[in-house]
Amino acid sequence: MADGNDGQRFDRLPATEAERTVDGRATREAVVDYFADRFGIPPATFDDYTFWEKGAGKIWIYRGEAPTPLEIEAIGMTCLRTRQEHWKPTTDVVQRFGDHATECVIDLDREQARRFAAGEDQMLEWWDGDWGYLIAAHEIAGEAEAIGVGLYVHGELRSMVPKGRQRDLEP
């Protein structure tokens, strides 16, 4: 593996810190631990997946194996942003794996879910869980479905649904 980050190349995350060759690069172990510690997603959920970094801190998840490095446009789906103070999961990974989460999931009623999907921020002072990034979910057909990522601070849930994915759903 070449040293340094390259925005045109995917490098597989090292399994552990001991295998890291690029300063600041996340490890597979750290990514899996993040999802387990923050959201209660069992580590075994990711057994069949590999994690990749393209550029500085943009982590992708891919089901399967591939040689490293790879000079391609995309592999799998974006998963996590790590080179910032607080790691931020993507809408894609939350919608794909959020049903495994047992922690930091905020269950929204119909109107709250509608507003969240539309990209609206809303005061939800009833939440008594952790602040920070949460999985926003709504019950559909008797099961909680992840809508996306929200940022909860000071009683406010901020929708992190990307503008191009926001939907104005009927009340």
TrEMBL record:
Domain of life per record: Archaea
- Organism from which the protein derives: Natrinema gari JCM 14663
Spans annotated as Disordered: 1-22
Domain named DUF7122: residues: 4-76
Q: Per its record, how is this protein called by name? A: DUF7122 domain-containing protein
Q: Which Pfam families did the record assign?
A: DUF7122
* Listed InterPro entries: DUF7122
